[in-house]
Write a structure and sequence with these properties.
The chain is of the alpha/beta class. The chain contains 24 helices and 21 strands. The strands form four sheets. It has a seven-stranded parallel beta sheet, with helices on both faces. Strands 16-21-20-17-19-18 form a six-stranded parallel beta sheet, sandwiched between helices. It has a five-stranded mixed barrel with strand order 2-3-4-6-5. Helix 8 crosses helix 24. Bound molecules: adenosine-5'-diphosphate and magnesium ion (MG). The site of adenosine-5'-diphosphate (ADP) has 19 residues, from helix 11.
Length: 688
C-alpha cells in the first residue's frame, strides 16, 4: 500500500529504521555482529520426498501443485491448502496467516513446502510449513539451509542476505595466534564461520544443530576466551585503584568485639576472617564474596570487618536488600557494637524526615561510624566522607548498577572502598570460574556447633489438617512457626491481599494461637513491630510472604510451612527452609503442595526433599534453570553466553582461561581485538 505523498523508497527507509530497534535487540549492528549471528539450526532442503513416502514426526520437503485452498470458518479461521505431487496429496494448514499467504497458495501454483509431517484426520498434513513458489524442474539447494535466531518482523530471507553480504565484505582475520589454534586443534575462524553459515553438502545436520560439530568448537572457544579476557581486564583495572589500608590496631575494636561475643567463632569463620583481614590491610580495594550456607554465621564476620574499618578511624556501610533484613542487621550489629562505643546510623527508605536528617547528618560529620540500611544508603544526599568499607548482603539481589553506585559513592575521592559481598547462594564452580571470576571468594563451610539439619516433609494440600495439628503441638511445646503464603506473581498488592486472606483463614483455623501477619505492603513500622513481637515470642504463628526469605533469624522458630511449595524456585525454597534450624532443637519444614505436579515442579520438590546442602541445591538449580536464570540476566552483570554451555563445555572454559593468560601476556593487541569483536560495546558491562 502506498500512502499519498510518500514515495516507495521513503517507505523502504521507514521499514529499515523501524527494524533498527529490533535488530539492536538481536545485538545486530556491525558486520561482525552479523558474522557471529550463527544459525539456531539447519533444515535439509537438498532432497524432495514423494508425498506418499512422508512419515509423521519427520521433517521433510515436498514439491507439488496447489489443487485447492480455502479459509475454513469453523471456530477460528484457518488457511487450508491441498498440495498434490505425482504420488499423492498433502494438507498444508495455517492457524495464523496473512492475507498474502492465501494468494501464494492459489490453486495452480507450484510450491515447495518444508515442515514437520503430522498424521491428520484426512491423511498427512504439515502445520505452518515454510513454502515458496518454484518453477517446474528448478534445481534443489546443494547445502543445508541455516535457520537464524530472529524476532518478529525480521524475515529469515533478509537475515540470510545481510549475513551473506557480511561474509563477502569482511576479511575474516584470525585473532588467535597459530600456536593457540594448534595447541587446542581449533579450525581457522574463517573456515568455522563460512562452514557454519554454509555447511558443506555432506555435513551432519544433527551435529551442527546440536552444536556438537567441530566447527562449533572454535566458536565456543572464542566466546569463552572473550569472556575470560574481559574479566581479566576488569580485574587489572581494579588492581590499579587504591584503597585505604586497614591494618589491625593494637587492642582495636575488632579484637574487643571478638572477646565480647557470646560464642566462639567456628574454624571456618576464623579462616574467612583472616582472609578478609589480609585483604583489608592492603592498599588495593578488596573485592570479595563471602559465601556460606544459610545459618553459617556470615553476619558476625561482616561485623568484624566493619569494626576493623572503624578502629582505623574510618566509616563502614552495611546494606541489605530488604527493609526487614536491614533492620535485623541494624539491631544485631548495634547490640554488638554500641556497648563498645560505636554509633550506628539506621537508614531506610521510609524513615521520618526528622530521623533521616539526623542519621544523614551524623554520617556526614563522622560522629556515626557505621551506616546500616537498604537502598536508601546509596541514594543521593547520603554522604559517607570517610567510607573505607562497603558490605552488601545478598548482593545478587541488587542490580548491577546499584552495586556500581555504591562503589563509586563516598570515599576519599581517590580511594575506592573495600567491597565485601555476602551470599547464601552457593555458586557452582563453573559459574565462579566465568561470570564471577572477577571476585575473590571465601567460603564458610561449617555450621555453628549443635545445629541439626532441618527435616523436610512433602505433604499434599488435602492433608493440611495434619499440619495444623502439628502447629498446635509445636506451639504447645513453646515453639514458633512460620507459615509462608503461596507465591503470587501478578503484583505486590495482589500478593498482600492473598496473604491477608491466608492470615484470616489461619486465625480462624487456630483460634487459640497468636497469629501475626507480615507482607511487603504493610507500613514499615508495622512490619518492624510484628517482627519484634515474633522474635520476642509474642506471636506463635507468623503468616508471611517471601519477605522473610532472606536473613530472618529467630532461633525459637522450629516449624516452617510453605503453602503451594510447587510454585517456588529451588533457591527460594532453600532460603525459606533456612529460616528454621537455627537453634539446637530439631526443626521441620513442611512443603504443602497441590497435585498434580508439573514435571519441573516435581524435580524441584524432589531436590529440596533429598538434600539440605546448599551447594548441591545450587548445582541442581543450575541444571534445572540454566545459568542465565540462575544468576538472573540483570544480576549476572555480563552478557550471557550464546553458544557455549558452561556445564557441557566446562573443559573448554578451562582451556579458554589458559589461553586468555597467554594472549593477554604475549599478544595484547590480539587480545583487545578479540574482545572488541565479540563483546563490542557490551564489553564494558563485564567490568562491574
Ligand atoms: P547467615 O550466615 O545465614 O547470615 P547469621 O549470621 O544470621 O547466619 O547467623 C545465624 C545464627 O548463628 C545467628 O543467631 C548467629 O548469632 C549465630 N552464630 C553465628 N556464629 C556462631 C558461632 N560461631 N557459634 C554459635 N552461634 C553462632
Ligand atoms: Mg544473613
Amino acid at each position: 500500500m502506498i500512502r499519498a505523498g510518500v514515495t516507495v523508497s521513503e517507505q523502504v527507509k521507514d521499514k529499515a529504521s523501524g527494524w533498527s530497534a529490533r535488530l539492536a535487540k538481536l545485538g545486530l549492528r556491525s558486520d561482525w555482529d552479523y558474522l557471529l549471528h550463527l544459525p539456531l539450526r539447519y533444515e535439509d532442503e537438498t532432497q524432495l520426498t514423494p508425498i506418499t513416502r512422508l512419515r509423521p514426526g519427520v521433517d521433510a520437503q515436498v514439491e507439488g501443485e496447489v489443487i485447492a485452498c480455502e479459509v475454513t470458518r469453523r471456530g477460528r479461521p484457518q488457511l487450508v491448502a491441498r498440495l498434490a505431487d505425482a504420488s499423492g496429496e498433502l494438507t498444508l494448514r495455517f492457524i495464523h496467516f496473512y492475507p498474502s499467504q492465501q494468494k501464494q497458495l492459489h490453486p495452480g501454483r507450484r510450491l515447495r513446502a518444508y515442515g514437520q509431517v503430522r498424521g491428520g484426520l484426512l491423511g498427512v498434513e504439515m502445520i505452518h510449513p515454510r513454502v515458496h513458489p518454484v518453477e517446474a524442474g528448478e534445481a534443489l539447494p546443494q547445502q543445508l539451509t541455516p535457520i537464524y535466531p530472529t524476532t518478529a518482523g525480521i524475515p529469515q530471507a533478509w537475515l540470510r542476505k545481510r549475513i551473506e553480504r557480511a561474509l563477502r565484505d569482511v576479511r575474516i582475520t584470525d585473532t588467535l595466534p597459530p600456536e593457540v589454534c594448534a595447541r587446542w586443534k581449533l579450525p581457522p575462524l574463517d573456515a568455522a564461520l563460512h562452514g557454519l553459515h554454509h555447511p558443506p553438502p555432506d555435513a551432519d545436520a544433527a551435529a551442527l544443530s546440536e552444536h556438537r560439530h567441530p566447527l562449533w568448537t572454535r566458536i565456543k572457544f572464542d566466546e569463552l576466551l572473550a569472556q575470560q579476557l574481559s574479566l581479566r581486564e576488569a580485574r587489572r583495572a581494579r588492581a590499579q585503584q587504591t584503597a585505604l589500608p586497614l591494618p589491625a590496631q593494637h587492642a582495636g575494636l575488632s579484637a574487643r568485639l571478638l572477646a565480647a561475643l557470646p560464642f566462639k567463632l567456628t574454624g571456618a569463620q576464623r579462616r574467612v576472617w583472616s582472609e578478609i583481614e589480609a585483604d583489608l590491610a592492603a592498599a588495593q580495594p578488596m573485592h570479595r564474596l563471602l559465601q556460606g550456607d544459610v545459618g553459617s554465621g556470615k553476619t558476625v564476620v561482616a561485623a568484624l570487618a566493619a569494626a576493623r574499618a572503624i578502629e582505623c578511624g574510618y566509616q563502614a556501610a552495611l546494606m541489605a536488600p530488604t527493609e526487614i533484613l536491614a533492620e535485623q542487621h541494624f539491631r544485631r550489629v548495634a547490640q554488638w557494637l554500641e556497648p563498645l562505643g560505636v554509633q550506628v546510623a539506621w537508614l531506610a527508605g521510609k524513615l521520618k524526615p526528622k530521623d533521616k536528617r539526623a542519621a544523614v547528618a551524623a554520617l556526614a560529620e563522622g560522629s556515626a561510624q557505621l551506616a546500616v540500611g537498604t537502598h536508601a544508603l546509596i541514594q543521593e544526599g547520603v554522604a559517607l566522607p570517610r567510607l573505607a568499607l562497603a558490605i552488601v548482603d545478598e548482593q545478587h539481589r541488587f542490580g548491577v548498577l546499584q552495586r556500581l553506585r555504591l562503589r563509586e559513592g563516598g570515599g576519599d575521592g581517590a580511594a575506592a572502598p573495600h567491597l565485601l559481598m555476602l551470599s547464601a547462594t552457593p555458586i557452582p564452580r563453573t559459574l565462579a570460574m566465568t561470570y564471577l571470576a572477577d571476585l575473590d571468594v571465601s567460603v564458610i563451610d561449617e555450621l555453628p556447633p549443635g545445629r541439626r539439619p532441618v527435616r523436610t516433609k512433602l505433604i499434599a494440600n488435602a492433608r493440611r489438617e495434619e499440619v495444623l495439628a502439628r502447629v498446635r503441638a509445636d506451639v504447645a511445646r513453646g515453639r514458633q512457626c512460620y507459615w509462608v503464603c503461596p507465591l503470587v506473581e501478578e503484583s505486590d498488592e495482589v500478593e498482600a491481599t492473598a496473604a491477608t486472606q491466608m492470615f484470616e483463614g489461619t486465625r480462624a483455623a487456630l483460634p487459640e494461637l497468636r497469629v501475626g501477619l507480615l507482607h511487603g505492603q504493610l507500613p514499615p513500622a508495622e512490619k518492624t513491630a510484628t517482627m519484634q513481637r515474633f522474635a520476642a515470642g509474642e506471636i506463635d504463628v507468623l503468616v508471611a510472604t517471601t519477605v522473610i526469605e532472606v536473613g530472618v533469624d529467630v532461633p525459637n522458630a522450629t516449624l516452617m510451612v510453605i503453602e503451594h511449595a510447587e510454585r517456588f524456585g529451588l533457591a527460594q525454597l532453600h532460603q525459606l527452609r533456612g529460616r528454621v534450624g537455627r537453634g539446637a532443637e530439631q526443626s521441620v519444614c513442611v512443603l504443602l503442595y497441590e497435585a498434580p505436579l508439573s514435571e519441573a515442579a516435581r524435580e524441584r520438590l524432589r531436590a529440596i526433599y533429598e538434600t539440605t546442602d546448599g551447594f548441591e541445591i545450587a548445582r541442581r538449580d543450575l541444571q534445572l534453570r540454566g545459568p542465565g536464570e540462575f544468576l538472573g540476566q540483570r544480576q549476572a552483570g555480563a552478557p550471557l553466553l550464546r553458544f557455549a554451555d558452561l556445564e557441557l563445555d566446562a573443559a573448554w572454559a578451562e582451556a579458554a582461561r589458559t589461553a586468555a593468560v597467554e594472549l593477554a601476556e604475549h599478544h595484547p593487541a590480539a587480545a583487545r581485538a578479540h574482545v572488541g569483536r565479540w563483546l563490542g560495546a557490551r564489553g564494558a558491562l563485564l567490568a562491574v
